[in-house]
Write a structure and sequence with these properties.
This protein folds into two domains: 80 residues, no CATH class; 32 residues, no CATH class. 3% of the residues are buried. With 142 residues, the chain is mostly helical. The chain has four helices and four strands, in the order H-H-E-H-E-H-E-E. Helix 2 packs across helix 4. Strands 1-2 form a two-stranded antiparallel ribbon. The chain starts with a helix and ends in a 16-residue tail after the last strand.
């Protein structure tokens, strides 16, 4: 079992996955900074100098000047401003990943076809087929 685990652990795909997770974590920090430090301040300014990280609802029904003061008082809060930031983080990450995959698909060479069309019945059949399974016609050797 140890030998099997070692073979699994040293395969290239495990290393690729580990590198992807590390880079993904770093990318997440970049996106969080982009949202908190670049995107949200102008939106907050447009909405009347609102700091989204300071938007909260106190469950003890008392009024606090900031989230930090509410936390210092031990008040239970619903931090919907932070939730908005996290939704924006997710949207930006999803959009960037979409752009990366889209670009990768554009430059990736097309895969070899696995099917071909039968010239007699126009059904899709395997490339290596010597007879059509639908009309039983013989296929020319490729």
């Amino acid at each position: 079992m140890f030998k099997e685990f070692r073979e699994f652990a040293v395969k290239g795909n495990v290393l690729d996955m580990a590198i992807g997770i590390i880079i993904g974590g770093a990318f997440g920090k970049i996106v969080t900074s982009l949202v908190n430090d670049v995107v949200m301040p102008p939106i907050g300014l447009i909405l009347g100098r609102v700091d989204f990280n300071d938007l909260f609802f106190s469950l003890d029904r008392k009024t606090y000047a900031s989230l930090a003061l509410a936390k210092a008082a031990g008040a239970p809060t619903i931090n919907y401003g932070m939730f908005i930031n996290i939704i924006l983080d997710f949207a930006i990450v999803a959009f960037v990943m979409f752009l990366i995959v889209r670009q990768y698909n554009r430059v990736r060479p097309p895969a070899d076809p696995t099917t071909k069309e039968c010239p007699y019945c126009l059904s899709q059949i395997a490339v290596k087929a010597s007879r059509c399974p639908h009309c039983t016609s013989e296929m020319a050797a490729a």
